[in-house]
Structure formats: structure tokens, C-alpha cells
Design brief:
Helix content: over 70%
Shape: elongated
Distance between the termini: 13 Å
Radius of gyration: 16 Å
Structural class: mainly alpha
Strand content: under 5%
Number of strands: 0
């Protein structure tokens, strides 16, 4: 499981950045296939995206701290 990886804070940060960039690079081309995707420059859609990703980042931060404390 995840516990066999003893990653320091810098290594965890690098892993999160690499995974996030990989998802970001593949995500946009897939969204162009949907008819319901908001406009790329929609302020409302971008605001919801930022809020959602901020909350996700906070959740990941607390989850990673729980794993490290075990």
C-alpha cells in the first residue's frame, strides 16, 4: 500500500505536481469531446474550477498528513 513509500515533504510535493500535470495535459483534450463543456474563458466556470481544486488540495493536504502520522 501507500505506507511502503517513505516520502519526504519535497518528494510528496514533486509527486503531486507530476501527477497533477499529467492529468491536466490529458484532461483538456478529453473535455473537447463533450457538448456541455463551458467556454474556455468563462469566468464563472473558472471560478468554480478554482474553488473545487482549492478544496481538493486542502483535503489532500490533510489526508497526506494523516498518512504520515501513522
Amino acid at each position: 500500500g501507500i505506507y511502503k513509500f517513505k516520502l519526504g515533504q519535497i518528494q510528496r510535493f514533486i509527486v503531486i505536481i507530476v501527477v497533477s500535470l499529467t492529468v491536466a495535459i490529458t484532461y483538456y483534450p478529453v473535455t473537447t469531446l463533450s457538448e456541455r463543456t463551458p467556454d474556455l474563458f468563462s469566468i464563472s466556470a473558472f471560478s468554480w474550477w478554482i474553488i473545487g481544486h482549492f478544496l481538493y488540495g486542502v483535503a489532500i493536504y490533510f489526508a497526506m498528513n494523516q498518512i504520515v502520522e501513522k
